[in-house]
Amino acid sequence: MTENRIKVGRILAPYGIKGWVKIYSYTDPLEQIFSYQPWFIAKTGSRKAPVEAGVVTGKVHAKGLIAQFEGVTDRDQALLLGGQDIWIDEASMPPLEDGEFYWYQLEQLAVFNEAGQRFGKVDRMMETGANDVLVVKPDADSIDDRERLIPWIEGTYVLDVDLDKGCIQVAWDADY
Fold first, then answer.
1. Is the separation of the CB atoms in 70 and 78 below 8 Å?
2. What's phi and psi for 128, nearest 5 deg?
3. What is the pLDDT of residue 63?
4. Contact criterion met (CB below 8 Å) for 108 and 10
5. CATH class in words for 5-91
6. Which of 25, 113, 163, 167 qualifies as a cystine partner to 33, CB 3.0-4.6 A?
């Protein structure tokens, strides 16, 4: 959306009649989303810049999250928020230790194996329980048109991440 904003969640649908909405969080743990302030919201795919939206309150409810935005007091108002993405300023995220990365930093990095073969770009990260997985989609410079799922196991499969050069080196054979 903008260079310094990170998408951290999405507003799903109204919850109840008093203006609350269900929230889908991309953070880990899920409720971490409430610690990032302020929130900015924008319709998915919109070319308009996100607008700041103050969260009055948010909480874990059942197996999900709910929140109420400032000035939203009934279900009809909450209904208008559905389908909007939640963004935060990158500067509000805690700093990482050397060698640690936020998933959003890995998206769109080019992926090469030790032989210099380009597999494509990281489309997204996927959590599997055992370990995270790089989902690598082919691009115009790829050696073939195969999507690859590469386990995020540093030192075994993920050998190097260079954010400045925009690439990841992996120990992964082109035939896998």
1. no
2. -115, -10
3. 86
4. no
5. mainly beta
6. 25
